[in-house]
Each structure stands twice: as C-alpha cells, then as structure tokens.
Design brief:
386 residues, mainly alpha, 11 helices, 2 strands
C-alpha cells in the first residue's frame, strides 16, 4: 500500500484533528528578532497617527518630517533675532515701480516681538497637542517622542507676552488720546452707561441717559472713544503688518525688507507660512488661522471713507437745493458762532464727492481680493484667481 498518497496516513493531521496548523514566521515568533537580511520590520501604526488619512509614509519620511520641523523652528529663531536688529521705524516702499516706489510707508517695531512670540506660541502649542493626541490614541508614549521633545524645548525658550498689561495699556492710551476732545464728548460719561448695560436693566439705562436728555452727549462720547481706539488700532496694526512681511520674506535669498513692496504683502502668504503649512499637513491638521487684524483695520478706515463721502454727497445736495441748515451747538460760553460755507458752485462739491467714491470703490475691490486670498489660504483651499 502506498500511504504517501492518502490523507489518513499523515500523522501530524491526525494529531491535530485533521487541521494543519501553520507555524508563525520567524519574525513573529515570541522572543525572535527580525533578520536584517530580510528587510526592516513593519513600522508601528502609531508612528503614522499624526499623518493625514489616506497617506502612506515612504522610507525616510519620518526623518524628513523632523527635518522640516527643525527648519521651521530655525526660521522662527531667525525671525526673533532679526526683530531685535530692526530700527524703531522701518520705512518700506509702497510699490516696486512707478510713483509708488517713491512713497515710503512707516512700520513701527513697537510690540513686534509680542506679535511674533504670540504667533509662534499659538502654532507650536497646537502642533504639540496634536503630537500628544497621536501618542494617546496609539497607546504609545514614545510615539512622536523626538518631535514632541523638540517642540517643548523650543516653547520653553519663548517668553510669555504680557497680554493683560497690553490690554490695559491699549485702553488707557485710547482714553488719554480722547482727553483733548473732551469739549466735544466726555468719554468718562460712558462709564455709567456701560455699568447700566452690564446690569441688563432698562430702568438703569434710562436713568443713565436721564430720560433721553443725554442721548446726544452719549453719542458724542462714543464718537470720541472711537477716535481714540482708531489711533491705538493704527499703532498696533503697524507691527502686525511688519510681522507678516518678515514671515513672507523667509528665507532672505531674493528679497530683503528694504527692497520689498509693502502693498504686496497684504495678499502674500509665503515663506514661513508655507513652511508651517507643510509641517502641519504632515501632522494631519491645518495651520491655526491667523487673525486678519490689518484687514479689519483697513475695513474700518474704508467705512470712514464711505461716511465722509456720504456727508459730502449730502452737502452737495444742500448746496444744490439752496437749503439752510441751523446747527445749535453748546460751546459752554456766551456768544453766537456763525458758520458760512464758501461760495462755490455745487459742481465742485459733486466732483470732489465723485473722487471720494471712486477711491472708495478701488480700495474696496483691493480689500475684497485680500480677504478672499487670506481666508481661502487659511482654510487650506487654493485662492481664487484675481
């Protein structure tokens, strides 16, 4: 009999109940070590927890990721060092060519270091939280250990911006700026009104306004306070814009702050921003959105231009119709003040009004384009064509 062709003649199958057990590979056996000649073992899935879904790391990808992270931290440190070497006022040309190249725009260095430090703190803390979350989900405390340690060490080197001191200084500066305009509106009058609004009681609001008799002074006080806040906002927007210029110009190979055009950086999101996008994309998250403070301030100025244009349009209409306007103004002193408009044809007022509205339309178009590019880029989408 030839038992080699019969399944019942195999003793291993009879011992296992007719099922042949496959022995585990040598690399998976307990206590065994992978052979170096058969290739490296499969990486732990926890190493890729911080990667975007649907991507597969290539050989050496982890090393490349850490090199980009170190490159980003080096760019941060170069910017911090450059801030210390800048003069108190940095003058930049408005445009590269034409008449704008002869117009210099001042940028203040005040509070610039606080803006740069805040940006770095916010972004690195978001990246560090992502690394910790990846390690927790992977149940591996050593996941992204080198990257986390690198980020934490750099965060320890950064000073903490005095946010409370800056906020109090900004409010007090606005009040001090508003003091010379106290004859028009007293900003301290708003304290009673603010206290009444915080109580959410209509009775207290009526008492603060004295039954509607103090509505006019309250409105004038708000206008004076807005003037003070606008001046403070202009001072704070200047270093914010300078921070964006320094970030866009990294690395300093083709452009320097002295040779760049200030108007271009309203649209540009390059340099350190592009490097941040790559690092955060490798970590599986988006870069935290940057505040659009400069665009907000430009929007405020554009609203003021619109209000000025509407006032001129109303004045043109008054002159055209020959209306008389009586303004009762309490100057706090006896006597009467007569104000007369110059005897000019309404055509000149209309022409000046048209120029104001034309400037408003051009500035509005430029501002809308800047908003679109900055918002689309912050959302991880490709900016629309200009």
């Amino acid at each position: 009999m030839e038992t080699g062709k019969s399944g019942s003649g195999h003793e291993p199958e009879a011992a296992t109940g007719g099922r042949k057990e496959k022995s585990p590979p040598a690399s998976d056996a307990p206590g065994s070590h992978p052979d170096s000649t058969t290739g490296s073992p499969n990486p732990d899935p926890s190493e890729d927890r911080a990667r975007p879904e649907g991507t597969t790391p290539e050989p050496g990808a982890d090393q490349d990721d850490r090199e980009r992270l170190v490159e980003l931290l080096g760019a941060y440190q170069e910017t911090l060092d450059e801030v210390e070497d800048l003069p108190a006022v940095v003058w930049l040309p408005w445009a590269r060519k034409g008449l704008g190249s002869h117009v210099k725009v001042p940028y203040l260095r005040w509070f610039l270091r606080y803006f740069v430090t805040h940006h770095i703190n916010r972004n690195l803390n978001a990246l560090n939280r992502r690394y910790h979350a990846a390690a927790a989900i992977a149940d591996d405390p050593e996941s992204n250990g080198k990257a986390r340690k690198t980020v934490e060490l750099f965060l320890r080197s950064l000073p903490s911006p005095p946010y409370r001191v800056l906020m109090v200084t900004a409010v007090l500066s606005a009040l001090v700026i508003a003091l010379p305009l106290q004859g028009f509106g007293n900003v301290f009058y708003l304290l009673d009104l603010v206290a009444a609004l915080l109580r959410f009681d209509a009775g207290y609001i009526g008492e603060a306004l004295e039954g509607g008799q103090q509505v006019g002074p309250a409105v004038r006080s708000v206008v004076v306070l807005l003037v003070g806040l606008t001046v403070v906002a202009a001072v704070l927007t200047s270093p914010f814009g300078l921070k964006r210029i320094l970030f866009n110009l990294h690395p300093r190979t083709d452009e320097t702050p002295e040779s760049t055009a200030a108007r271009e950086h309203v649209y540009r999101v390059e340099g350190i921003y592009a490097l941040e996008d790559r690092v955060f994309e490798e970590a599986g998250i988006r870069r935290p959105r940057e505040g659009l403070w400069d665009l907000m301030f430009q929007t405020l100025l554009l609203v003021l231009v619109l209000v000025f244009g509407l006032c001129l349009a109303l004045l043109t209409l008054v002159i055209l119709k020959g209306w008389n306007i009586d303004i009762n103004l309490d100057a706090g002193a006896p006597g009467q003040v007569h104000f007369y408009l110059p005897q000019v044809s309404w055509v000149y007022y209309a022409l000046f009004t048209a120029l104001i509205f034309a400037a408003f339309v051009l500035l509005l178009r430029r501002l809308v384009i800047a908003w679109k590019k900055r918002v689309w880029h912050a959302g991880g989408r490709r900016p629309p064509p200009l």
